[in-house]
Amino acid sequence: MEKFFLYKVTGRKAVKEISLLFDALSIDFETIKNESSTEFFVDETDYKKAELELELFFKEKELHVEKESVKLLKINKFALYIPFLLLIAFHLFLVLSGKYSSVVYNWKSSASRITDGEWWVALTALSLHSGFKHVFSNVVSGIIFVGGVGRLIGLKITWVLVILAGFMGNIFNAYYYGSAHNSIGFSTAVFAASGILAALQFFDKYRMKKVKRWIPFAAALALLAMLGSSVKTDYMAHFFGFGAGVLLGIIKGFADSKLADRR
To answer: Average pLDDT, stretch 247-251?
Structure first.
């Protein structure tokens, strides 16, 4: 079960006393220790109880705490890293087996094939890259943005939205260029993740106190500059991926806000 961020506490004594308090109240919790603080995470079912007990506890002890404006999730690092490691392994297999050229030819995002109804290549193209430098740049940036979205809405729904938005980006790109265009790469999905993150920042439920609403958009521009150093860069695929991510992020944020209002 995923656990939600509750409080960030400084001082060993505070961490020990809160841990003892939660143990005494049978509240299931986990901690993440940083350089100068410790973050407490609890199950959603225990969240209100833990929050109330801590407020009473802090009034008595006057401990220094910092509460975020959004409940951050503790993500499963295995679920975040494994898909990217499999992507690297897949390319290593293609190179060693000599199947790279044929797979790229059959799986690339071909505008002519997509407009003729072979829409699935818009999905398979996300797994293909022009070389290991291309793969590693997308892996690094992907971990950052997918992980960021995952801490807000959970990794399961994040992966669904990121892949769907990347797929949509390739579809939009194919119809924009017409028949004479091909593209490959997970960067469309990376920009989709940045778009989802940007959109979620406009909803109070997901806006972190220290993150301004414009920061994810600036990060997307920085990412475009980083991944766009080659003349082969498909800028419009990145643009459409980001746009699809913003669209899905707005839908997700709006749906969650409406659900919260009904409770």
So the answer is: 95
Residue 183 has pLDDT above 70, yes or no: yes
Residue 26 clears pLDDT 80, i.e. is over it: yes
- Region 143-156: what's the mean pLDDT? 92
Alpha carbon distance 49, 30 (integer Å): 15
